[in-house]
Amino acid sequence: MAEELQFQMGSILGDLPSFDPHNFSQHRPSDPSNPSRMVPTTYHPTHNRTLPPPHQVITTEVKNILIRSFYQRAEDKQMRPKRPASEHLAGEHGNKHFRASSSSSAQGL
Amino acid sequence: MSVWNYVVTAQKPTSVTHSCVGNFTSPQELNLIIAKCTRIEIHLLTPQGLQAILDVPLFGRIATLELFRPHGEAQDLLFIATEGYSFCVLQWDSDSSELITRAMGDVSDRIGRQTDNGQIGIIDPDCRFVGLHLYDGLFKVIPFDNKGQLKEAYNIRLEELQVLDIKFLYGCAKPTIAVLYQDNKDARHVKTYEVSQKEKDFVEGPWSQNNLDNGADLLIPVPSPLCGVLIIGEETIVYCSANALKAVPIRSSITKAYGRVDVDGSRYLLGDHAGLIHLLVITHEKEKVTGLKMELLGETSIASTISYLDNAVVFIGSSYGDSQLIKLNMQPDANGSYVEIIETYVNLGPIVDFCVVDLERQGQGQVVTCSGAYKDGSLRIVRNGIGINEQASVELPGIKGMWSLKSSIDDAFDTFLVVSFISETRILAMNIEDELEDTEIEGFLSQVQTLFCHDAVYNQLVQITSNSVRLVSSTTRELRNKWDAPAGFTVNVATANASQVLLATGGGHLVYIEIGDGTLTEVKHAQLEYEVSCLDINPTGDNPIYSQLAAVGMWTDISVRIFVLPDLTLITKEQLGGEIIPRSVLLCAFEGISYLLCALGDGHLLNFQLDTRTGELRDRKKVSLGTQPITLRTFSSKNATHVFAASDRPSVIYSNNKKLIYSNVNLKEVSHMCPFNSGAFPDSLAIAREGELTIGTIDEIQKLHIRTIPIGEHARRICHQEQTRTFAICSLRNQSSAEESEMHFVRLMDDRDFEFLSTYPLDAFEYGCSILSCSFTDDKNVYYCVGTSYVLPEENEPTKGRILVFGVEEGKLQLVAEKETKGSVYSLNAFNGKLLAAINQKIQLYKWTLREDGTRELQSECGHHGHILALYVQTRGDFIVVGDLMKSISLLIYKHEEGAIEELARDYNASWMTAVGILDDDTYLGADNCYNLFTVKRHSEATRDDERSRMEVVGEYHLGEFVNRFRHGSLVMRLPDSETSQIPTMIFGTVNGVIGVMASLPQEQYAFLEKLQTSMRKVIKGVGGLSHEQWRSFKNEKRSADAKSFLDGDLIESFLDLSRRKMEEIAKGMDVQVEDLCKRVEELTRLH
Fold this sequence. Notes:
The structure holds two protein chains of two kinds. Chain A is mostly helical. Chain A is 32% helix and 4% strand. Chain A has helices at residues 2-8, 65-79, 89-92, 100-108, and strands at 41-42, 57-58. The longest helix of chain A is centred in the middle third of the chain and has 15 residues, at 65-79. Chain A is elongated and about 80 Å long. Chain B has a five-stranded mixed beta sheet with strand order 82-83-84-1-87. Chain B has a four-stranded antiparallel beta sheet with strand order 2-3-4-5, with no helix packed on it. In chain B, helix 2 crosses helix 5. At the A-B interface, strand 1, strand 2 and helix 2 of A face strand 4, strand 5, strand 8, strand 9 and strand 13 of B. Chain B: Keywords: DNA damage, DNA repair, Nucleus, Phytochrome signaling pathway.
């Protein structure tokens, strides 16, 4: 709606942002055939704060992506809780139980 | 020239590559920050417009520039990444007005292929990550912790190899990027990824969009609440988010830059390849995007960056034309344009070619560049020093002094010009026809020499001669009072201001007189031990008509003394040292600082800062301006005071950022100068030189002057022909609509008014590649030779070209001869009365022969194969130096007897060349596409063949700029006696609009300056923690090595910007006097 109102008012450039209404309020357009050459002071720092605090000298992790993913997988494995022990331990291992009949037949061979 | 070279910037880069807006210098202040390749500029938005605060040189080439604000910060920080894989985060410390480094680091990887489409550096809008795409298949992340501190960076594998753009999206719970890429079937798609901090990996993002516009090249992230991304193509613009997809077709265009207008991201400015500015509007209902609209606003320079500033004012940064400040008007003007250009900022880049000429024939070199690209192409005339625009001139030999006077003290204009000769004084005034004619001031003496004149209070005029001081009414012109010198004494030197007179007679008598209404009161007399050589009472304090101090220069003890008026109390005595007497002293103030200038009889100038309260003289500095005595005089121009130093090498002394600058005046010799501001010639100077009196206005006071000749097309080659006073250029024009979009021309221009005189259109697909003015053996005429190339779409390398020979007849180009070649004619050189052409991989020599019918033709004589592409050729005598596309530099020789060209030696490195130059018979200079300069030397005396055939690299240096051309020559006027004029120089032009000077120094001076450079490195720190030593190290893809045999003049000359204390420290460390060191460095600044 707001957008449509703007168009009705006749300009797509209506309501341009203004952060400080004073900015450019006294600007006098210069002669376009005589371009300005702004000559600001050149900065030559002589202070010691051109170096950041030691912990802000950033480097890249040395581990490469592949190694990192290996480690990460390994870590994941360690982190993952081991399979919880079954409540029916006996039942699960049921078929490993010694079966007298078969063994006897084997012996019989 | 030699291998010991000094490289210095005469014109800093002007091409704007990046810009951003934010609160950088304070939470309340809005700043525009501009990157110009190796420098950033910080500007402040003010009611008057943009105010430049600081120009910050960086020891790196800027790849990305972003302002951002971490949580809890009141103002923005600046993130900069360099092409050399360094980054830094800068913060403005407003207490000390210094830039401090918050963080920095090296983000290079040992392996990895550099991205083809440039480096990408982005910051998450919620400040969780910095993202960098520097190598194919890798995305580097630098995380922020919750205090806004950066942590260790890590890489994430990015499946997409041909990335065109990456942006962080707004309004995402997890940091999310959108990647615009091309697949191996050349189709373009956008994909999104979330960055998982824990896994250090990408997780598939919320959406993707396949099969976009084939020209899609740019992503614009849209802020909350709309979010999503705009995908800018050549035919369509698409808005894409997790829940909406909108597209709008556009007129075919390539968008080069964008700028967000509204904070909510509903409007954007888009700048295209033709310099058109469009407004892109996202229409929406609440947070739902309903459509896109594109509206043409108008035309600007071709933008490389767009920043909306405030109140409808927008900065257009350009690397192809001048940067601009534009205003967006609510309603279109008569041409339908909403754009009003309210300011332009000069850009010389890209300098594709240039020539050095002396158009005014004064011994002053000027550089004429082919600048800009496409429709923003222009020629620029770049000249060092300050020009005088002559308004009127009259022959008047023997002038001994000049002063201008008003007919009433509050008159705006001067009426009289008093001109003194050895035994008479003439008064000139403007008549009704605005001509200077003789007139009379009855009360003045006209049969004697005048020593000094001045306007005085109560509408009076003062004339001082060797016998008297005369006070005259400026209205009746009659004598009101006079003071006579005591019998037996004559006045030797005198000075005055509106209410005071100070004069010295023989025998060291100093007399101080005050001027009243019709009165001259001798207030004080002092007897000095020696004769007075010069004196001054120019008021520098608050009272413009009264000076509290007098400066007096002395014979015999060679001193300058400061006296307090009216008592003539001596408060300071400064020994000048040496045996040269002071010839002119001047008290003056620049930018609120008082100075004493003292000119010596040998062309040296001493300057001191003057404490007007105590008379103390501090910070003594010495410069050499010329070789003859100097006369100092103040004048005003554009509301600022400057000093004119008249001598054999006239200069203007002015102050910029509280530093004194000496600028050459482009006149050969000036004996006297006085300001003469008349109705007919406002703001003018009267100048006495070489038997003439000239009235002229003075250029704007700055070191380098640039004049722009817009030509509306892209000039690629330029050449000057002295005999016909013309320039010829090869240029191309882009037809905006037609299928066959480019047309190439050879154009002839007048070298005075730069009007096109004549045009020769080249064939379809035919490019002008080289141009030369030359003459041939047995032919008195001069010709323009043009080398061309047929660039056919189906061919990889051109297989056909032409050499065209033109004569200039009555201001027209006349084709005299034409020769077809089997390839592109990359270079043409005049060579022993013949023509040497570089054609694809071959060097070919042509002679100019007479046919039986009396016409001439180019006939092939001999050639030399063995290059990949012989792009750049320079010759010297029989030597031919070839810069190859990828095989560095080789040296050929033409053997007259055999009529053959043979290879003598080559550099076996694989440097991709961009320009070559010849320093001397054995030493050659090259620039490569890794922005290095290097010198190679051949061993002509070596005993073994293989040693003779191998050139040794003797100098290496990282310039950080892409050089397109070297030319011998100088920007400054050469004087036979001055020390600096013995130093041979070369000029180079670069893509970023840099004009540089390379000077060959004597080895001992080189050694001295190298020591200074080493000391300077310890004192001047690299912004963002970047190291100067590393920056200047030679580097290409294969290796890196410390700079050798090249010095960084920019660093060395910044010595003059240091505080006195730092200067003294350095001088002490080098075991030299600080004054000598200043003088030596100051002299170097006069090379450019």
